[in-house]
């Protein structure tokens, strides 16, 4: 069986694959493949290990006539045309659960960083602008007693809620289906979408990206939010209208934002959002702890090999 990985994988992972399949991989750990490079590389592939920057659309899938499985090294699969893969009899798998805690941790790290202005605080110390103690120096936003609104109450959304409870926050959420068991277990309350926007002191987006959710948070939605609220997006960039977010942050209609994801990644360094002091940013590292990333890689390999072996994968998408 011929397997291609669109990123260089850790040696112990690729060694495992080489024992069982005819394995090749893209030469870089960081550099994404172009569409043309991808189409060339997968012509003979029975299996692909993919990452979220690979656009596996109908045209790309058509260039891989032997393909049996796409094993995605992520939980989000919005870069894959799953319908087309299913039509072609190609199994798609992903890596849910193993990254839930790491991603919820990073979400909370960003939330805290925005609440307490950590990037500005760090810069003040490093750049020699720390003059003395002053009463309202870098005065931030209190978590205890504040309301956190979570859009998307699945695995990671609920893990964020559990962390919020540890900070004595009031947890409200919106999701397409209500989650009565999680509400009781965590102590969270379902609210309508607009009510979550209106009530949240911290708004956390934890939905998957789908075309119908594009710019779910735009000018109108931001206008409903409290002007001292903080928005945290560690889900997918396309869920937020970045131009509207920039205007809201610049004009004092929103206190701050913390973003791990952007509509275009890597985000261009001249992006207007990066000029604002009230924006905390990270380069899409939600799941990036060493333990989680290795678990994700190992699950990706197990899923891939299971399908090629005619077995059911552990975490199928289709
Ligand atoms: P999940 O367990 O599937 O949770 C997603 C939740 O969103 C589900 O509860 C689902 O409702 C709800 N939902 C889906 N479509 C919806 C819609 N159209 N309207 C309203 N609610 C909708 O997924 P997860 O594991 O928590 O991951 C969530 C997302 O986080 C991923 O898809 C990915 O994009 C992102 N993520 C980012 C990073 C990072 O590095 N920053 C890391 C991991 C994941 P139901 O329960 O009714 O299906």
List the helices and strands and how they pair.
Layout: E1 2-5, H1 11-20, E2 22-25, H2 35-41, E3 47-50, H3 58-62, E4 69-72, H4 82-87, E5 91-93, H5 100-115, H6 118-126, E6 147-151, H7 155-166, E7 170-174, H8 180-187, E8 188-190, H9 193-199, E9 202-205, H10 219-224, E10 230-233, H11 242-250, E11 256-259, E12 279-281, H12 290-308
Parallel strand pairs: 1-2, 1-3, 3-4, 4-5, 6-7, 6-9, 7-8, 9-10, 10-11, 11-12
Helix pairs in contact: 5-7
The structure holds NADP nicotinamide-adenine-dinucleotide phosphate (NAP).
Q: Can you characterise this structure?
A:
- The protein is 36% helix and 15% strand.
- It is α/β, with parallel strands linked by helices and 318 residues long.
- The chain folds into two domains: 2-97 and 289-308, NAD(P)-binding Rossmann-like Domain (Rossmann fold, 3-Layer(aba) Sandwich); 100-281, NAD(P)-binding Rossmann-like Domain (Rossmann fold), CATH 3.40.50.
- NADP nicotinamide-adenine-dinucleotide phosphate binds next to helix 5 and helix 7.
Q: Report the uncertain regions.
A: none
Quickly count the domains.
Answer: 2
Fourth CATH level, the homologous superfamily of the largest domain: NAD(P)-binding Rossmann-like Domain
Largest sheet, spatial ordering of strands: 8-7-6-9-10-11-12
In whole angstroms, the N-to-C terminal distance is 21 Å
Bound molecules: NADP nicotinamide-adenine-dinucleotide phosphate
The helix count comes to 12
- Biggest β-sheet strands, sense, barrel: 7 strands, parallel
Mean pLDDT figure? 97
Helix content: 25-40%
Highest CATH level, the class of the largest domain: Alpha Beta
Structural class: alpha/beta
Examine the secondary-structure arrangement and name the CATH architecture of the largest domain. Answer: 3-Layer(aba) Sandwich
What is the CATH topology descriptor of the largest domain? Rossmann fold
Shape: globular
Radius of gyration: 21 Å
What letter string, H or E per element, gives the SSE order? EHEHEHEHEHHEHEHEHEHEHEEH
The amount of beta strand, in percent, is: 5-15%
Q: Count all strands and give the number.
A: 12
